[in-house]
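Give me structure tokens for this 179-residue protein.
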Amino acid sequence: MGAFDTGIDLVGLTNEGDYWAIQCKCYDENTVIDKKAVNTFISTSGRSFKDVDSLKTVSFSQRLWVSTTNKWTNNATESLRNQNPPIIRLNIHDLVNAPVDWEKLENNITGELARNKKYPIKEHQKIALEQTHKYFKEKAINPTHRKANETQTTENALPTANLAKCGLTASFETVLYYL
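Here you go.
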């Protein structure tokens, strides 16, 4: 892409041959990202460019914005919507909660070896998942067929007692119902 700042910090090439445009911003956590901050990235990453090896004209298949602040203006957020190629946002919360051992990455240990240990599903979680799956398989009601004033009966309710053991609440039932 060139030796000068073009509005893209990194260009990633996937194993499938897709190019990703990546923008990284290390801001103070109280900094607010505004539309002006994203305009150059949107503009530059939306353009075609020449593949260095094949000299074919290619475009980015995905765009990624990584920032250390979670604060965005409405205009900045809105400018990211309905973009083609789409823009994925990762913020400090996503990075902190990523299933990655950051110390291993700093020591050049990558891939599966750098992931946090996976724990097996607990018995109460397994039961909750099985009962939820069974509910949707056998008794799910299509919301479009429900009458305006009709409510869900206890007979059709999800097994929320086991869901509660997983830290899920009755509101989860509502979310699942409308999926």
